[in-house]
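Lab meeting notes turned into a lecture example. A postdoc, R.K., suggested we walk through two folding results consecutively so the class can see how the record format repeats. The first protein's sequence and structure tokens come next.
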Amino acid sequence: MSTSPTESAVAGTVDYLDQRTGIAGAVKGFARKIFPDHWSFLLGEIALYSFVILIITGVFLTMFFVPSMGLVVYEGPVASMNGQLMSEAFASTLDLSFEVRGGLLMRQIHHWAALLFMASIVTHMMRVFFTGAFRKPRELNWMVGFLLMILGLAAGFTGYSLPDDVLSGNGLRITDGVVKSIPLIGSYLSYFIFGGEFPGEDIISRLFTLHILVVPGLILALVGLHLLFVVLHKHTQYPGGGRTDNNVVGFPLFPVYVAKAGGFFFIVFGVLAFMGGTMAINNVWNYGPFDPSPVSAGAQPDWYMLFLEGSLRLMPGQTELVIAGYTLSLNVLIPAVVVPGLLFTFLAVYPFLEAAVTKDKREHHVLDRPRNVPVRTGLGVGFLTAFIILALAGSNDLIATHFSLSINSITWVFRIALFVAPVLAFWITKRICLGLQRKDHELVLHGHETGRIVRFANGEYIEVHKPLADEERWLRVNYDAHRPLEIEPREDSRGVRRKGFRKDQALQALSKFFYEDRVEPVTPLELAAAHSHGEHDQLKGHASDSALAIVGPDGTGVDDHSLDDREQNH
């Protein structure tokens, strides 16, 4: 069979590279890698594709943006800005928006891609958290994802601060206050960051370097590490028929997922291009160049930083202490450093905390159903509730103006809700999960209700149930119901106090919080007992002995000489 010149050229190139790099074996193994198919796995792909689009549009924007705080008098197509003194950064943003062909479109695609990037990272982490995909051997990959989220926040903050408009300038002013609230070193850090007293003359150029070089470089490195871990550990999969911790049920990367991924990338790009072309965002000419004097309602950062804004707004202002001549600004330190620190610390350490209270050393590749881990699910919902309340608090002025409410009343409602709502959300979610587990338990033992009532010849009535299919039953019984830890006594046989007892005691108390309330999966003995109906079992095969009156949902009775249903659960 003859080959075309193009095919010969490609084959020759591939052979040349393989002989010098040995890449064929790696490509072959990677192309045969099996990946499961589920829509929630696309969340991570959306984050990756959004980042690629950010790089593409960012390269375009970098060619026209001037990262300088040098002052110029603007003369251009924006009439409202003519004659105003502004930084070169703000002036170049206006030129980019109105005088560069496609510049405004690229700006808006870039901004929407940044919002989608953070949204997909957050929802991807939610999927990983609620399904337990962070368990061994993926604890380090969870930390990689956590760092990617932090870097995404840094990329977003450094990006929307670059235009040097009133909105971004106010954000930098808040940043300066947060940094200065850090005890002892705060003022030195502020001087180092801004190159002098706020706002200084270097902050835009420094943010520009971080935004286009340092942060993207770190994100690229961590994305590569994240994907490497996915390949090494193999992909997690949802529980189902034939899926175990020892296999992956799905399709090979090539050609199935290569085609799907390519198509999905262009879908994401198309959606972002449509949003960039039709939905205005960050119209800096409406705000004007940075000036610390204008103060107005409706000034909020992008959604992923809104929780920090809300935390600052909820904190009472009269909370400053003077210790040895140093002012401790608790009104800024607690909401802007302590509260985010607690939230992020919870996310970072949770996988290791759960591993410690379960003492589970096995590898897990099949995901949990959230209902089967009620405390974890409740903690996740409580965390999200706190985040949502803080985000809403960051818009308390808009809520007040749009609904004609008192901003003070709204603030107090959110202050109380921040402490009450997460606890209530945790308790409600936990009870719902336990209720769903009990429902699964009953379904396994007794099957689905059919609405049919059977009357025996002796006058006894039973309700007919439809047994679960094998896969449906397996899905509801194949999970681990961890129990609270059992620890060694305080003292050994010689009466000597055991080393490490306090640590074990603390872990035991924590494990009781996690696993004291639980629903054990149905055992084979329980299932066999539920399927044994005593004298009813003796009636199998004797349909001619007596007719049955079947009472349906409508209350009517019909004769039924088929006794197959007598074997079913009731």
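The second example is placed directly after the first for contrast:
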Amino acid sequence: MRKIRVKKPDIKGFFQRVRNIRWGDIKQYIKARRERRARILEKRRNSAFAKKMQPVYKWMNRLSLLCHFVLACILNFLIEVISRHSLFAAWNYLIGSPKVFLFNTYLIFATFSIVYLFKRRVFTRILLSVFWLILGISNGYMLMKRVTPFNAQDLKVASDAVSLINNYFNPFELTLLAIGIVAVVVWVISMWRRGGQYTGKIYRIPALLGVVVWIGGYVVLTNVAIDQRVVSNYFGNIAFAYEDYGFPYCFTASVFNTGINEPADYTKETMDEITDNGDYNKSVTGKATDELPNIMFVQLESYFDPTEVEWLTFSSDPIPNLRNLYANYSRGYFKAPSVGAGTANTEFEVLTGMSMRFFGPGEYPYKTYVKENVCESAASALGKLGYGTEALHNNGGNFYSRAKVFNNMGFDHYTSKEFMNILQTTPKGWATDDVLIPNIMESMDTTEGRDFVFTVSVQGHGDYPTEPVLENPEIIVGGVEDEGKRNAWEYYVNEVHEMDKFVGSLIQKVQARNEPTVLVFYGDHLPTLGLEAKDLKSRYLYNTNYVIWDNIGLEKKDMNLAAYQIMAEVFDRLDIHAGTVFNYHQNRRKSKNYQADLELLQYDILYGKQYAYQKNGAPITEGHMEMGVKDVEVTDLISQLDGTYSIYGENFTKWSKVYVNDEKQDSKFLNNTRIELTDTKLENGDELEISQVGSSNTIFRTSQTYVYQDGKLMKKEDWEAWKAEQETQEADGAQPETDQAAEQSVSEQQP
């Protein structure tokens, strides 16, 4: 059998040649490479195939605009096939809305005008085609995982999504994604080398003018299409808008159409009339301070009453606790601003009283306006009445920029998952909601007075597995013939059942505090389970459910409320009149121009001249929020035989990271009282801190500084006092005490 011989690499010879290389050799190599490349290109141009294709290329160059239009049609159709997950649905869209299809085709066609600025025209066409297809594929995949299509605002939360990639992609999908990306990159690079170049003269100024003309033509055509009602610039339902108006237009609109455009009748006189001459910008109440209750809002991820689905059956009621609340306390449908996704937008509406309908399509104000600017909210309004304001979420502190947003809204504290000792997760990796209860109680303990607590849960988050993952589900679901869909529904319903248990446990804990409290539960949006309006008793995809529990004897008053109305309604029932927008809702909700004037008010507060604040001043000018409510405490440090250290203390979590002299160390979280410090050698005088660290290495909160001295840790101020004493004794000529006798360890300082 013939042996396979592997030639040994001449590493020594390689380095010898590198050392002896001269500049002239480099220039000669580059020249030879260029000549070789020129010979290859010349050979290709003179090949039999190239000669046959020359008339074709010449014809294509003359008719390049027509070719671009044909290519744009093909790309547009492929994008819709991918987005709609159906060839027939895309075809029905094409023949059913030909004007919309051609309008979207023109947008893609206009982008191909860039080709004429470059010699590598084939490569540029390929690059543009790949760009549009990647957008279409992203939209198609997004719609497999959620109801909301892919839009420009998703790009602004891309860094957050990376940390959750395992929740949306299984290992097989991740592998296919990686292979696909590598294959596309390799192909594009190969086309850069093989695509050839345009041999004619490039007239760049006329080409640039052409780009301006084609793109400008699209802007003009868009205005005409809107005027003729071919498309719309308002997406009441972004998912339906993508179906009606096509992906290219809708995605582009989400890129450029953000914020709130100035209404035509925006003047100071108009705003004075809307805000009752600025008097809405007040925070007042008819109750004495000791009569005010705690106000708690709990946003339940993807929650709604499963019995709202007409064809779904259950082995037992999945929400017995909430069902009891529905029977005895105020309840109704809760109109969310989106379907299947958009948790942050529901939060925004509830906390600010502002409606998302006036913002750009698919926009997240958390990522556009509130991330960088202060914004009055329920927290700032109640803060003026002496409330402590707390926010909690059992997900990452940076997700949807909440750490910045809640600060800009006026909260006192925000407790994210980085401060929670999360022991249990769902089969899909989301934290269970029971971890919120002790953290809510700790947040309320930060003040002696009343609290406003806003909590966002995560347990019910999708996607929902089509394979069975629950060994012994408490609730058995029926009424679904497809096994995969039944598994998904059964998983979701059992998570809702766990959320219902959380609701019951939280109410028990609140009752035990024996404080007057109003507690509101609501769902942020429907789950991504393919529901249609005809499947629901309410016949409306934006409806979830809410209920208002209290222990102060509020009258049961059932009504349907939008997300942006519920805070004002709760305030009104408590005789609280705080916050400009909430006061507007309380006074104008049944008025003739309610929605039009709400748009004016939102524009004035966020993007206008803030006439509403001129009389009484802005409700909030800067944030003061702290992350978490407890510091990490170190009680002892033990040196192990293998050279590692065990740090003992309190309030450690999986996101507690050890820093020595401001440098992050390798450490291992064992439990909430112990962290192992590995690969670190401590020296006398080294300063040690423990920080709660979020995504992108964001440090949210840091413990006090400890100093290492002879195998022990001391608080820095104690170490400095001890060090000063040693120096004083040495200056006086006295014999200083030994380090071991002089210093007090952290463990000895603890009571």
